[in-house]
Design goal:
15 strands, mainly beta, Porin
């Protein structure tokens, strides 16, 4: 059984749906729920330009079915010949051993314009993400072929390793409205994702999803104390997707709920420590559409994670450095993994 690399990529893609993006890490959603820190969902109170550099890593080796069970085998029928001895119509069963690693670099800029709209501060955001995506898969494939009314079984150890470092899907948020009170902050945002990342159905490692997306977000924080040193945060994000380029397929929209408790503690006169637990849940809330829908996506996906963050803030320099970590403890119809991130932010 002689497979070319492109043939093997098709096997992996058909078996495990390994096409994904920087913002839809191991899933099919643009919004990456583990990327932002607890208070990042809110519009900054002071007028000016804020710059943040997000560094992150998502790693996983667990692919989950629609019941939350780990998928370690996949069976499908080859639509075309996959090489000598493997004709079209051959039934292939593969034992999967899949590993996905994504390294993220996302320079992000927020501009509080100083203008007011409906009593809220008006701000804008742009994020220019780059990703190094590495996909590795080993398959122990058993192919059942019927030739001249005789069943023939062929076994083959297959492996593929693919990586890509490319710009991902750019995110632009032209509308950010922030209302600020003594004990609360409230933000309402709209943004869109442009399919600027690498996307090809012939590749395993992609850095883009291949479609435009719209994002609507509402976030709020409650401060029990006047100094706002303690914040209880909740953010809801809703996505609407367009048709995938080159395919008759539209991924259903997603809703994500982020939560967190942020606490600043004085370390020195000019240095604050921030700590707090955080987590997220993401659900597909709309059905998929199109004749090119992958069989793996025949049911809505979801994922749930818990973690926390720790950071240092320098108020006089208006700078902050934060590390956070999330572990996904439940997932359906998608990958389940871990996200670790570091952020450096400063106001100009």
């Amino acid at each position: 059984m002689n497979f070319r690399k492109s043939d093997l990529c098709r096997v992996v893609l058909a078996s495990a749906m390994l096409t994904w993006s920087i913002a839809g890490v191991a899933g099919v959603s643009h919004f990456l729920p583990g990327m932002m820190n607890i208070r990042d969902f809110l519009v900054p109170e002071k007028e000016g330009v804020y710059a943040a550099l997000y560094l992150g890593n998502y790693s996983t080796s667990k692919l989950k079915d629609n019941h939350g069970n780990t998928i370690d085998t996949a069976t499908f029928q080859a639509g075309t010949s996959l090489g000598p001895g493997v004709p079209a119509g051959a039934r292939i069963t593969a034992n999967l051993d899949t590993n996905v690693d994504m390294y993220l670099i996302a320079p992000t800029f927020v501009w509080n314009t100083g203008y007011k709209f409906l009593g809220a501060d008006y701000a804008m955001l742009i994020s220019l993400p780059f990703a190094n995506t590495t996909v590795g898969a080993a398959l122990d494939a058993l192919t059942d072929i019927r030739l001249a009314d005789q069943a023939v079984s062929l076994k083959k150890q297959l492996s593929v390793s693919d990586s890509a470092f490319e710009i991902s899907d750019i995110f632009v948020q032209p509308v950010m409205l922030g209302w600020h009170g003594k004990h609360y902050d409230l933000s309402a945002n709209y943004g869109f994702y442009a399919p600027s990342g690498k996307y090809s159905t012939d590749d395993v490692a992609n850095t883009g999803l291949g479609f435009w997306g719209h994002q609507f977000q509402l976030a709020g924080a409650y401060y029990p104390f006047d100094n706002k040193g303690t914040a209880l945060m909740l953010a809801g994000t809703y996505e609407i997707n367009h048709e995938t380029q080159g395919k008759n397929f539209t991924q259903g929209g997603h809703f994500t709920l982020n939560w967190g408790l942020s606490q600043f503690l004085p370390v020195t006169e000019h240095l604050l420590l921030e700590v707090g637990p955080a987590g997220y849940s993401q659900w597909q809330v709309q059905d998929n559409h199109g004749t090119d829908q992958p069989s793996f996506l025949n049911s809505p996906n979801q994922v749930h994670a818990v973690g926390g963050q720790i950071g240092l803030a320098i108020p006089k320099a208006e700078a902050q450095f934060t590390f956070h970590y999330f572990t996904e403890f439940d997932a359906k119809s998608r990958f389940q993994g871990d996200y670790a991130g570091f952020t450096a932010a400063v106001k100009f």
